[in-house]
């Protein structure tokens, strides 16, 4: 049985040579690599994007401009500008320039029918089919301390699957109590890859990032950590256990990802309030380390860990798990508030 403790302890028991791999990667040169995704891969700049759930059931891009949102599908047709309609299309095929042109047309009467009031939008999933959903565990110093674990010497990695992806303002339908009942929040910065990255250095790592989102690594702790399951995959990957949104913000608008305030509120009560400057492994180190083991492709996403304040870190007699009817709000500086409810 692999428990949380044995899983995380294993990451602290590596040899000194392996532990030095992160530092060594800083001077390494990126290996030659050809992405399976052809086409231009200019990174999006100056863009804040969201996903619109359309009446026909599709989920297409919107561009946030102040209080209004440009429906990219409608604007593309009105202006005759072929543009990517989903995050996957944007990141894998490119053509961010088309979105920039559409945004620049915001004042034109021609685009007026494509302008939406964000208050009336039904949000779609920002990501529906990423090639990889990589998650980094135990990546904040205070969080490691609150659960009594040593800081890992390399990033502990696990994954979620696409069935877990969910939209801003979604409702997560919890499984029956006989399946799980120890539900917990984890507000996390999400890294969105924009270029194929294989064996990249820490120095160059941010050059491969398209942007960032607010995300929540929602978890069933009993499935994750207790018998008869004790499986991280099951505890982390039930349907809709990875809400992301409401926005994708391009990297140039975010600046330093290693100094962003983040917060979790449950029914209005602050539960987590900290900063990514408490990362054990910063954004560059995570990307460099992961890319040493496999290729990160455009559109791959990385959950970066959560700070202290999760229910799991409370004394056992004060652990009041989330339940149907609760509202969770995850917010990250510059990236907006992700809201979802439990049912």
UniProtKB/TrEMBL annotation:
Keywords: Hydrolase, Metal-binding, Signal
InterPro entries: FAH, Fumarylacetoacetase-like_C, Fumarylacetoacetase_C_sf, TAT_signal, TAT_signal_bac_arc
UniProt protein name: Fumarylacetoacetase-like C-terminal domain-containing protein
Highest taxon of the lineage: Bacteria
Cofactors required: Mg(2+)
Gene3D superfamilies named among the record's database cross-references: Fumarylacetoacetase-like, C-terminal domain (3.90.850.10)
Listed Pfam families: FAA_hydrolase
NCBIfam families: TAT_signal_seq
Taxonomic source organism: Sideroxyarcus emersonii
Any GO BP annotation: carboxylic acid metabolic process
């Amino acid at each position: 049985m692999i428990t949380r403790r044995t899983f995380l302890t294993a990451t602290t028991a590596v040899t000194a040579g392996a532990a030095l791999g992160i530092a060594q990667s800083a001077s390494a040169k990126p290996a030659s690599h050809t992405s399976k995704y052809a086409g231009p891969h200019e990174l999006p700049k100056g863009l804040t994007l969201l996903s619109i759930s359309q009446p026909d059931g599709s989920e297409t891009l919107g561009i946030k401009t102040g209080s209004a949102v440009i429906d990219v599908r409608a604007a593309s047709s009105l202006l005759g500008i072929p543009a990517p309609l989903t995050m996957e299309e944007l990141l894998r095929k490119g053509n961010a320039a088309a979105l920039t042109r559409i945004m620049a047309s915001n004042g034109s009467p021609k685009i007026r029918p494509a302008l939406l009031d964000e208050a009336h939008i039904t949000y779609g999933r920002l990501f529906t089919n990423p090639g990889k959903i990589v998650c980094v565990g135990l990546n904040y110093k205070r969080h490691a301390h609150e659960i009594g674990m040593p800081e890992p010497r390399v990033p502990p990695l696990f994954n979620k699957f696409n069935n877990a992806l969910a939209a801003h303002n979604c409702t997560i339908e919890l499984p029956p109590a006989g399946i799980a009942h120890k539900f917990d929040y984890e507000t996390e910065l999400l890294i969105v890859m924009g270029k194929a990255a294989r064996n990249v250095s820490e120095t160059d790592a941010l050059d491969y990032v398209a942007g960032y989102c607010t995300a929540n690594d929602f978890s069933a702790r009993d499935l994750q950590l207790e018998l008869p399951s004790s499986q991280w995959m099951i505890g982390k990957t039930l349907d809709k256990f990875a809400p992301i949104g409401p926005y994708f913000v391009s990297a140039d608008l975010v600046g330093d990802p290693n100094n962003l305030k983040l917060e979790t509120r449950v029914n209005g009560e602050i539960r987590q309030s900290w900063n990514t400057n408490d990362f054990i492994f910063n954004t560059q180190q995570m990307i460099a380390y992961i890319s040493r083991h496999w290729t990160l492709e455009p559109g791959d996403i990385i959950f970066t860990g959560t700070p202290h304040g999760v229910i799991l870190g409370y004394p056992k007699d004060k652990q009041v798990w989330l339940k149907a009817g609760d509202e969770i709000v995850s917010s990250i500086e510059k990236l907006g508030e992700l809201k979802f409810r439990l049912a």
